[in-house]
């Protein structure tokens, strides 16, 4: 087992024999770490953490530490990391607050340096969180979202599939699937580049483009705009997903541009 002699590993840690542990790493238990995972120098892995296979835990990263939440009482809660994730230097991922709850990272995600995932947040698969972005408590980020540098995600919001947040933007409302957002939860258009890279066809993209223009292209009554989309736009699975996401929102959804530059084409 390739473990540096300066690493400190609790006796109730379950390491696959192929796990690499660098200098000065601390791993508290109980914890389980799967095959092919590499933990670089001076990282800390907290108790009740499960890390899957073929992950990179970068220099000085902190995974599974106690949440920054006054409600935390020290009871057992979890951090669950899937497979094939890149968690770069000084990333922080905190475990759940309530007993038995968890913070979750799916598969094939890339968390860049100094980004943060607060307690009870979750990432889907193929999500990118760029340097300095902050994901608040109980935030849900769906597959293939792109959270640019220094973005701020308020607690309890949802970020939809293939959302692209531009650098330095923030959100305290839900961000609808397939959209580009900036400033304060402002929808600027359809994430065409992301959709094409994900393999969406023109036949899938055209109805989405039409729906986003109706919903966010100008100030409107959202309920009436949803009804207009249902009347006028082909209800493809992607359009239905967009509508259902908006209807299920508890915090409200991002708005279209109110003044100045309009939607991107």
Word description of this protein:
With 265 residues, this protein is of the alpha/beta class. It has a domain at 8-138: UDP N-Acetylglucosamine Acyltransferase, domain 1 (3 Solenoid). It is built from 4 helices and 27 strands. It has a 10-stranded mixed sheet. Strand 26 (179-182) and strand 27 (186-190) form a beta hairpin. Helix 2 runs antiparallel to helix 3. The longest helix has 15 residues, at 202-216. The model has no long low-confidence stretch (mean pLDDT 96).
Shape: elongated
Count of individual helical segments: 4
Alpha-beta classification: alpha/beta
* CATH homology superfamily name of the domain at 8-138: Hexapeptide repeat proteins
**Sheet with most strands:** 10 strands, mixed
CATH class of the domain at 8-138: Mainly Beta
Strand coverage percent: 25-35%
CATH fold-level topology of the domain at 8-138:
UDP N-Acetylglucosamine Acyltransferase, domain 1
Radius of gyration: 20 Å
Characteristic key phrases:
265 residues, 10-stranded mixed beta sheet, UDP N-Acetylglucosamine Acyltransferase, domain 1, 4 helices
Give a summary of the structure in a few sentences.
The chain has 265 residues and is of the alpha/beta class.
Per-chain topology:
Layout lengths: L7 E2 L3 E3 L4 E2 L4 E2 L3 E3 L4 E2 L4 E2 L3 E3 L4 E2 L4 E4 L12 E4 L4 E2 L4 E3 L7 E4 L4 E2 L4 E2 L4 E2 L4 E2 L4 E2 L4 E2 L4 E2 L4 E2 L4 E2 L4 E2 L4 E2 L7 E4 L3 E5 L1 H6 L4 H15 L5 H11 L4 H11 L18
Parallel strand pairs: 1-4, 2-5, 3-6, 4-7, 5-8, 6-9, 7-10, 8-11, 9-12, 10-13, 11-14, 12-15, 13-16, 14-17, 15-18, 16-19, 17-20, 18-21, 19-22, 20-23, 21-24, 22-25, 24-26
Antiparallel strand pairs: 26-27
Helix pairs in contact: 2-3
């Amino acid at each position: 087992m390739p473990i540096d002699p300066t690493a400190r590993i609790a006796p109730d840690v379950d390491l696959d024999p192929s796990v690499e542990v660098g200098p000065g790493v601390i791993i508290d238990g109980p914890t389980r770490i799967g095959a092919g995972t590499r933990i670089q120098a001076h990282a800390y892995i907290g108790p009740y953490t499960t890390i899957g296979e073929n992950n990179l835990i970068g220099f000085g990263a902190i995974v599974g530490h106690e949440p920054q939440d006054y409600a935390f009482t020290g009871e057992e809660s979890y951090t669950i990391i899937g497979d094939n994730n890149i968690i770069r230097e000084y990333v922080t991922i905190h475990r759940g607050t309530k007993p038995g709850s968890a913070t979750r990272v799916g598969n094939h995600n890339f968390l860049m340096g100094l980004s943060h995932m607060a307690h009870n947040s979750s990432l889907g698969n193929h999500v990118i969180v760029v340097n300095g972005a902050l994901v608040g408590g109980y935030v849900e980020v769906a597959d293939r979202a792109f959270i640019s540098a220094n973005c701020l995600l308020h607690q309890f919001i949802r970020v939809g599939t293939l959302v692209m947040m531009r650098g330095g933007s923030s959100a305290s409302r839900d961000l609808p699937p397939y959209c580009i957002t900036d400033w304060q939860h402002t929808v600027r258009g359809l994430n065409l580049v992301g959709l094409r890279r994900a393999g969406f066809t023109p036949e899938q993209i055209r109805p989405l483009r039409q729906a986003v223009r109706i919903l966010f292209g100008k100030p409107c009554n959202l309920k009436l705009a949803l009804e207009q989309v249902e009347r006028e736009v082909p209800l493809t699975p992607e359009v239905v997903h967009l509508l259902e996401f908006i209807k299920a929102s508890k915090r409200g959804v991002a708005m279209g541009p109110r003044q100045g530059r309009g939607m991107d084409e």
